[in-house]
Design a protein that fits this description.
The chain is an alpha/beta fold and 530 residues long. It is built from 12 helices and 17 strands. A 6-stranded antiparallel sheet has the order 4-11-12-13-10-16. A 5-stranded parallel sheet has the order 5-2-1-9-17, with helices on one face.
């Protein structure tokens, strides 16, 4: 009989933790996976969304519980920062994690994103290269069921089929939405490269999932399960014997004199605590929750970098009415992307930019202002149809650099229903991000001119994109990072972190696929050790 409760205990059942659990279980390892929130079936989320009034709050159809509050809970995150910018984020605490309500963008980083200091003299280098991670990128795409096209340069720099790949995407691209066709037709002659956005919404039957029906309900939930979400790997892991314990909030870790973690404690909603032992512990919580847990236990922080270096894709947004119908809203809520500024030499001076094209059905957003104008009846119907056909939103996904002053810490002055601290986030925009404004405004002016656009919302205010990186940095040196190249905490040989918080650079693309690739690589590392 084993002296441990399991070979591996994993905290968090999001896409990263669930993928690691699945790989470990396939190899015959015993795994206990803890989730602070409940397991909610897809049908229930769909029903909740149909019945709620708030159609733009992607957290609203999911449980928001006193012992596992989500990020929109009033007071849960105390955000401080700049006068012209308020930091807001959106994440869930349910089985499957925040990919339950994502838009499934599945980009790879570019090779230069791994070596920002070496190439551009800013930021940090990764302790691994793109080439070293590429095999796990491919496996992550296969696990998720990524749809992509192999005939485009995602760097925007005329590099051919780029970034380099060892195999094609698992699934071919879907039909190109009319909006993307018009963007390519109008912006292509101006030198802008509008490319397909790789994503996890399958274009044909795959792994038991039906192909996308194009209903544009990716957020807050794909009603038919065509789009990937972390609960799919939760189900796979449980089917292989993983012990999923929901409504179980990890709060305490014990360590021995040699630095090894010997036990973990979790708390149930009624206040009961349970102690677990394991050979290895993986913290796979959200990029804000992981450093909170470590800081609560004074772990992994000999470098004083836990919770620091918070990065997000913080930028500007333009909404306009085109002089022709574009008809956004067919297919994924994110579809095309303008990539020219993703890897230019200007990264040495200011943030790279990727322009994201919003493909959301806009009727809800359009109708409220029209009602406030007093429109009614046939006139209102005609105005909704006209504006819905012509409205377009383009936003910058702008990279930020790791800055130790941008940080998350436990907020001990406010506690949840089971006595655990909430969060304080301090986030400022430096000159590196702000320096890209002139370039963005130049491009926005070109976009407007190409479509003879009427500005509805000018790109004046800053906003972030809920993409959390940097809070538990990976690096080559224990003095300035939290984990090594294998995601092992420098201070604790059997404690690993599977979170996008380990990423040393933010680049301009959603971090989830990179996080899953790292989690798969971590699982392979553990299979050699346990």
């Amino acid at each position: 009989m084993s002296q441990f409760d399991a070979d591996v205990v994993i905290v968090g059942s999001g896409a990263l933790g669930a993928n690691a659990a699945y790989q470990l279980a396939k190899a015959g390892k015993s795994v206990i996976m803890l989730e602070a929130g409940p397991y909610v079936p897809r049908w229930k989320v769909v029903e909740n969304y149909r019945n709620i009034a708030s159609k733009r709050n992607w957290c609203a159809p999911y449980p928001n519980l006193p012992w596992a509050p989500n990020s929109y809970t009033d007071g849960y995150i105390n955000a401080t920062g700049d006068d012209d910018f308020e930091y807001v984020t959106s994440y869930l605490r349910v089985a499957g994690g925040s990919t339950r309500h994502w838009a499934s963008a599945c980009w790879r980083l570019l090779p230069n994103d791994f070596k920002m200091q070496s190439v551009y003299g800013v930021g940090r280098d990764w302790p691994i290269s793109y080439e070293q991670l590429e095999p796990w990128y491919l496996r992550a795409e296969q696990e998720v069921g990524v749809v992509g096209t192999g005939d485009e340069d995602q760097s925007g720099q005329g590099r051919g089929y780029y970034p380099p790949r060892s195999a094609e995407y698992p699934l071919p691209p879907e039909a190109k939405p009319y909006m993307v066709q018009r963007m390519q037709a109008k912006l292509g002659p101006l030198g802008y490269q509008v490319v397909h956005e790789p994503h996890g919404r399958v274009s044909r039957p795959y792994d038991g999932r039906p192909p996308c029906a194009g209903n544009n309900n990716c957020e807050p939930i794909c009603p038919i399960g065509a789009m990937y979400s972390g609960d799919m790997h939760v189900d796979k892991a449980v089917a292989l014997g993983v012990d999923l314990r929901t409504e179980s909030v990890a709060f305490k870790l014990e360590k021995a004199g040699n630095g090894k973690i010997t036990a973990l404690h979790y708390r149930k909603p009624d206040g009961r605590d349970t102690r677990l032992t394991a050979k290895v512990f993986i913290i796979a919580a959200h990029g804000l929750e992981t450093p909170k847990l470590l800081l609560m236990n004074d772990l992994a922080n000999s470098s004083d970098q836990v919770g620091r270096n918070l990065m997000d894709h913080t930028g500007l947004s333009l909404t306009f009415l085109a002089d022709e119908p574009l008809w956004t809203g067919r297919g994924s809520v994110q579809h095309g992307s303008i990539v020219n500024r993703r890897d230019e030499p200007s990264r040495a001076k200011y943030s790279a930019i990727r322009y994201s094209l919003r493909n959301l059905v806009p009727n809800v957003d359009i109708t409220v202002p029209l009602l406030k104008q007093g429109m009614m009846g046939l006139r209102l119907d005609e105005a909704i149809r006209d504006r819905a056909s012509r409205i377009m939103n383009i936003s910058t996904m702008s990279e930020t650099l790791p800055n130790p002053a941008n940080r998350v810490v436990p907020n001990y002055s406010r506690k949840d229903a089971i006595g655990l601290p909430m969060l304080t986030v301090n986030y400022h925009l430096d000159s590196y991000v702000r320096g890209m404004r002139d370039q963005a405004n130049f491009d926005f002016a070109n976009f407007l001119q190409a479509f003879n656009g009427e500005v509805i919302e000018a790109p004046t205010g800053w906003r972030n994109q809920y993409h959390i990186m940097g809070t538990t940095l990976m690096g080559a040196n224990a003095e300035d990072s939290v984990v090594d190249k294998d995601l092992r905490c420098w201070d604790h040989p059997n404690l690993f972190l599977a979170t996008t918080g380990v990423m040393p650079s933010s680049a301009t693309v959603n971090p989830t696929l990179t996080g899953i690739a790292l989690a798969l690589r971590l699982a392979d590392t553990l299979l050699k050790e346990i």
